Amino acid sequence: MGIIKNTYAFDDSSILKLCTISIPDSFQIFFKEKILTARNYPKLKSLIDKLVMQDIPKYRFVPDKNIDENIIKVANQLLEGYNIQMLGLVFKIEIIDQLKEFNDQIRKGFLEIVKDEEIGGIKQTFENNLLKLNKEDNMPQDDDLKIIAGYCKYECSGNKYLITEDEHFWGYADLIIKNFNIHTVKEWECHTLNI
Amino acid sequence: MILSKDEAICLILGISKNKEVSSPTKLNKLLARLNLYFIPIEINFSLNKFGSFSADLSSLQANDYYDVAPYSYMGRIVNKFVLKSKGQELFTETIKLKINKILTDEEFNSLKETIQYLNSLSVTEISDNEHKKLLVDIDDRFKLQQKINENFIELFDLYQQIGKLPENKIAEIRLKALIEYCYQLIKYLKEKRFELLSEEEYDFNAHMFDYYFLDNISQIIPFLNKQISEKEKNGVSINKFYQYFVNSVKEGYPFSINNKDLKELIV
User: Fold this and answer.
1) Which of A16, A21, A26 would you mutate first to test chain B, the one with the most B CBs within 10 A?
2) Which of A43, A118, B21, B209 could cysteine-pair with A191, CB 3.0–4.6 Å?
3) CA of A139: how far to CAs of A9, A131, A163, A171, B265, in Å?
4) Which residues does residue A8 pair with via DSSP β-bridges, in sequence order?
5) Which domain holds residue A184?
6) Does B25 score more than 80 pLDDT?
């Protein structure tokens, strides 16, 4: 009997939150530290460290056509709660540029799962079981469904985990495990995973 | 994005005929000219009566990327700079990739032609042209004052509009950030750097970036006006201008995001 290997895949936003933003000198007066990290950074980093220690590969989904949108989303989240009293837009672009560079570099550290374009059946399953979410749109976007479709097709001997902060996934966690055999892990709980 | 000193030198040598520049002074002038092409380089320039000058370039030694080769010219020994194979490698594998993020192929070819043309001129000819273009001569001070005021008003108008613009795409946010930065920069130039334009003495202590920034802001105002109303933004050019204004000066120039006291200059 072979060794059962679980698969740990991260959505792009969660991967971007592993970036530590170095704050240019002129903006440091608005922060306590010289670096800026996402709220869930320590938890994500803890999971990544555990995976690295046990030599377990990390996965991401490709192609990442929506990466710019995700970068903007993460940049906005990083800025939440701060009042940058000068050149606020410039600071946002500095964050965006660092996230872009981080994304280019980190690609090599993640193996790829290809998103699948055939989402007709999956879409139907969601439409038949639509839930009321906190998000504006209750229905997952097509790109979310492509991630599920791609992950479904991906062959793995153990469990499949999807680490995400997107309510379109964790809001439908029961539906996703039941129909697609994928465990959705809320980003802010990812450090509790037993590897 | 910024080119290091060696990368900037290899860029100039790489696009020059025979991959060489005939003297340190000319190399200095050609490197300075990259500023008028919005290419951020890690070299500071000051103003002297021969135009832009960088102390960083006064004692360049040969290294892995380029050679310094002495030759005799009108009875004097002059050093010329020649690109080495490792410099060519740096040009192809690093510099060109950086340049591709800010210049289109057409713009790169235009830069190449200009550098080759300037390389064919004498140092004095390059300096004269730069002085005239940047209005650094005493006789042109009134034009300089006029230019500052006009640009300030234009930028003020643009700055008033950015609150209404969307932030759905990176190019949109970057355009707004570029306008925000240029507005604060021109305000700083007007109120601090050019506040007391001397009419009698040549400004030997001026920082060349005062002039580069002022001239370059005036160059991009029509572009900013057009982009503000365009639905599809020109991401490459917006990025070029942004990288130039924000990253050209790291240390030694007060208006920089790397100056911990920048807020005092803005408030």
Assistant:
1) A26
2) A43
3) 22, 8, 19, 10, 49
4) A58, A161
5) 7-192
6) yes
Domain-embedded: residue A1: no
Place of tokens 């204004």: B245
Give the number of A-B residue pairs with CB atoms closer than 8 Å. 64
Give me the interface pTM, i.e. the ipTM.
0.90
Beta bridge partners of A111: A59
Stretch B62-87: mean pLDDT? 91
Domain of A148, CATH number, reads 3.40.50.1010
- Tell me which chain B residue has its CA closest to the CA of residue A85: B263
- Considering CB atoms only, which of A24, A87, A92 is closest to B173? A92
Q: Please name the helix (run of DSSP H) or strand (run of DSSP E) that holds residue A93, with its range, or none.
A: helix A88-106
**With an 8 Å Cβ cutoff, are B256 and A26 in contact?**
yes
Q: Which of A71, A85, A89 sits opposite B177 (nearest CB)?
A: A89
Number of domains composing chain A: 1
Best to test chain A binding among B102, B242, B257, B265 (most A CBs inside 10 Å): B257
Do B173 and A72 touch, CB atoms closer than 8 A? yes
The predicted model gives B119-125 an average pLDDT of 87
The answer as to whether A147 is a domain residue is yes
Structure confidence by residue, pLDDT tens digits, B43-61: 888 887 777 778 777 788 8
Write down the domain spans for chain B. 5-131, 135-266
Interface of A with B (CB under 8 A): 24-29, 68, 71-72, 85-90, 92-94, 96, 100
